[in-house]
Amino acid sequence: MEIRRLTDDDTDAMRPLFVEAFGAFDPPEPPVAIHAPGKTWWGAFVDDRLVATALDRAYDSWFGGALVPTAGIGGVTITAEHRGSGILTPLLTTLLDAARRRGALVSTLYATSPGIYRRLGYENVTTLDDVRVPTGALAAGGTTSVRRADESDAEAIRAVHDRVVSRGNGPLQRRGPLFAEAPTLRVSGVTVAERDGVVVGYTSWDRGRGYAADGELRVWDLVADDEDALRSLMTLLSTFGSVTPNVLLRSSGIPAWQHLMRVAHPTPVTSTPYALAVLDPAALALPRVHPGIDARLPFVVEGRPHALVLADGSGRIEDGDGSGRSFTRGGLALTFAGAQTSAALRALGHVGGDDADDVTWDLLFSRGPVTVHDYF
Questions:
Q1: How many CB atoms lie within 10 A of CB 215?
Q2: What CATH superfamily is the domain 2-121?
Q3: How many other C-beta atoms can be found within 10 angstroms of the C-beta atom of residue 10?
Q4: Where are the CATH 3.30.1050.10 domain residues in the chain?
Q5: How far apart are CA 330 and CA 336, in angstroms?
Q6: Residues of the chain with CATH 3.40.630.30
C-alpha cells in the first residue's frame, strides 16, 4: 500500500470514490475545485489504484478566547472492497502527522461512525443541528435598524462573526482561503443590523420553495453583538410568517436567539456529531487561563510525560517527570474541549493517576459548551 498526497492528476480517480461514499449529486455552480489553497488531499493506493481518500482543511478554531490551528478532516472515502481492511488508520495517521508539522494543534471532524475515529483520539464534543421553530415565535421586538446587505458589507459581516464566535468554544474563524468568497453569495439574502453606521449583527437566509403550509425559511446564521440587535433580526425573520409558517435554523448547543423566543421550543430535525482530537499537547497552553492561577500540572499521555505550566495568565508546555494524572488521547480531547469533568473522565477510564489537581484542571477547562457553526 502506498499513501501520498493527491494532485490534480488524481482528480478523475477521486470522483468515483466520492459518489460511492456520499451518493450521486449534481455538481455545484460554480464548480468547487477539489484542489485549492487550504486543502490537502491524501490517498491510499493498492496495486496503483486509488482506494481511499481523506482531506485536511486548514482552519483556526476559537477556544478560550484564543485561535487554535485546526485540521478539519473531510472527504473520507474507502472503496467497498477495502472497507474493514485497516486502510483508514494509516491514511489518517499520515495525514495528521503532516497536519501537525504544518502547525495544527487539534483536529476536528463530523464523525459518521465515531468508533472508527476513536482509536485515533477523536471524541464527540458537540453536535451541529438543524432545528425547526414556528416563524412567528421569532418575533422579539428590538429597535436596531435592519437593511439588506450587499458585497460592500462583507468585511463588516466577517467582523461581527469574529466578535461573536470569539466568545465561544469551538467555532471556526471564517478567515483564510477556505472562506474567501463573500458571505452574501449562495444565499437568497443577508440582512444586517446597523447602529450609528456600524454593523452589529446579521442573518443569512434562503427563501426556498413553496408558500403557505409548504413554505419554510432556511436560516444559516443569526448572530449579533447584543440583545437588541438580535431581537431586531429575529423580528425581521418573523415577517416571513404569512408565506413560510416554519423556520429551519442551524444551531449548536443552546444559541443566544433561543433565549429570546416568545413561545415554543425548537423541534430537532437533524443532529451531526462533531469530534475533536488533540494533535499536540501544546494546545492546552493556548486558551486564556485564569490570571490568578500559577501552577505546574504534570500529566502523561500515552506514556509521554508533560507539564502544563501556568503563570501570569498564560501557559506553556514543558517536559514532565511522569507524575500527575494520566490521559488517554480521548481524555485529553475531552479535557481540552471542556466537554467532561475530571470525575466523569475518571469514571469513563479516560483519566487515571493522581487526582490532587482535578479541581484545577476543571477550573481551567470548564469554559462552557462547545458550539460550531460550519459543516465541512
A1: 18
A2: Gcn5-related N-acetyltransferase (GNAT) (3.40.630.30)
A3: 18
A4: 281-365
A5: 10
A6: 2-121, 130-270
CB 153 within 8 Å of CB 46: no
Q: How far apart are CA 33 and CA 55, in angstroms?
A: 13
CB 60 within 8 A of CB 67: yes
> Using an 8 Å Cβ cutoff, are 51 and 87 in contact?
yes
Distance CA 217, CA 229 (A): 20
Q: What is the pTM of this model?
A: 0.94
Question: Which is nearest to 237 in space by CA: 250, 227, 222?
Answer: 222
With vertex at residue 52, the alpha carbon angle to CA 18 and CA 80, rounded to the nearest 5 degrees, is 75
Residues 16-70: tens digit of each pLDDT: 999 998 887 655 554 567 889 999 999 999 999 999 999 999 999 999 999 999 9
State the Cα–Cα distance between residues 350 and 123, nearest whole angstrom: 11
Task: Measure CA of the first residue to CA of the last residue in the chain; give whole Å.
Answer: 28
255, 368 contact by CB (below 8 A)? no
Q: Which CATH architecture has domain 281-365?
A: 2-Layer Sandwich (3.30)
C-alpha cell at 79: 472503496
Contacts of residue 62, defined as CB under 8 A and 6 or more positions apart, other chains included, come to: 68, 165, 166, 168, 169, 170, 171, 172, 173
pLDDT in tens, 178-237: 999 888 888 999 999 999 999 999 999 999 888 888 899 999 999 999 999 999 999 999
User: Rounded to whole angstroms, how far apart are CA atoms 126 and 111?
Assistant: 11
- Of the candidates 16, 4, 18, 10, the one whose C-alpha atom is nearest the C-alpha of residue 91 is 4
The CATH class, in words, for 130-270 is: alpha beta
